[in-house]
């Protein structure tokens, strides 16, 4: 093997090593994937879909109402929508969600799902905690019935993008 071929192989090897290191860094610190299990986020997300979530967004900013967040609770992660913020009071009365006594329009839900949402609360959310619900309110295990209020440290990322199945490929509302 002559010197030029050796240099070319070394160049390719450097590119491959840098690419692997960059992919490892992105996967470990910036983005990760999660598989949606169950129908609790239907129709926004469906059982078996694979999503990419942003792990950095909540280290530089706080969660916002409406975000579809990844919540880490042992032994698994949950995908839920953030509804209530620290210090707010949440109540569902006659299928209407109220935040601090004001009706909140849930544009991400169908009228049918809203009509089937049962009464809840009022509940005041303590500081550093969030109230979350699945979009499929009838079957969702969420802050109303099993997950409880979510401590800020348990919110590990924001679901950004569906990558599988390919016919659902795209941004998450």
UniProtKB/TrEMBL annotation:
Q: The Peptidase S26 domain covers which part of the protein?
A: 10-164
Q: What class of enzyme is it?
A: hydrolase
Q: Where are the transmembrane segments?
A: 12-36
Per the record, the coiled-coil ranges are none
Query: What broad class describes the main subcellular location of this protein?
Result: membrane
Does the record carry rRNA-binding as a key word?
Answer: no
Q: How does it sit in the membrane?
A: Single-pass type II membrane protein
- Report the catalytic activity: Cleavage of hydrophobic, N-terminal signal or leader sequences from secreted and periplasmic proteins
InterPro entries (UniProt xref): LexA/Signal_pep-like_sf (IPR036286), Pept_S26A_signal_pept_1 (IPR000223), Pept_S26A_signal_pept_1_CS (IPR019758), Pept_S26A_signal_pept_1_Lys-AS (IPR019757), Pept_S26A_signal_pept_1_Ser-AS (IPR019756), Peptidase_S26 (IPR019533)
Under the heading PANTHER family, the entry gives: CHLOROPLAST PROCESSING PEPTIDASE, SIGNAL PEPTIDASE I
What is the organism field in this record?
A: Oceanobacillus locisalsi
A GO molecular function assigned to this protein is: signal peptidase activity
Q: What is its EC number?
A: 3.4.21.89
Q: What is this protein called?
A: Signal peptidase I
Family to which the UniProt record says this protein belongs:
Belongs to the peptidase S26 family.
Lineage per the UniProt record: Bacteria, Bacillati, Bacillota, Bacilli, Bacillales
Alphabetical list of NCBIfam families matching this protein: sigpep_I_bact
Q: What is its subcellular localisation?
A: Cell membrane; Membrane
Q: Which UniProt keywords apply?
A: Hydrolase, Membrane, Protease, Transmembrane, Transmembrane helix
């Amino acid at each position: 093997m002559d010197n030029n071929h050796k240099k070319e192989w070394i160049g390719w090897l450097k590119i491959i090593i840098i690419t692997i290191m960059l992919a490892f860094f992105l996967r470990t610190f910036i983005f990760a994937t999660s598989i949606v299990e169950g129908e609790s986020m239907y129709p926004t997300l469906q059982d078996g879909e694979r999503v990419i979530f942003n792990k950095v967004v909540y280290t530089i900013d706080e969660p916002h109402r409406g975000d579809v967040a990844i919540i880490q609770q042992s032994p698994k992660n949950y995908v839920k929508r953030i509804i209530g913020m620290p210090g707010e009071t949440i109540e569902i009365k006659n299928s209407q969600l109220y935040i601090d006594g004001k009706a909140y329009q849930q544009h991400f839900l169908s009228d049918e799902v809203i009509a089937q949402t049962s009464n809840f609360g009022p509940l005041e959310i303590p500081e550093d905690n969030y109230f979350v619900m699945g979009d499929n309110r009838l079957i969702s295990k969420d802050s109303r019935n099993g997950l409880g209020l979510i401590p800020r440290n348990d919110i590990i990322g924001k679901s950004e993008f569906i990558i599988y199945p390919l016919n659902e490929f795209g941004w998450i509302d």
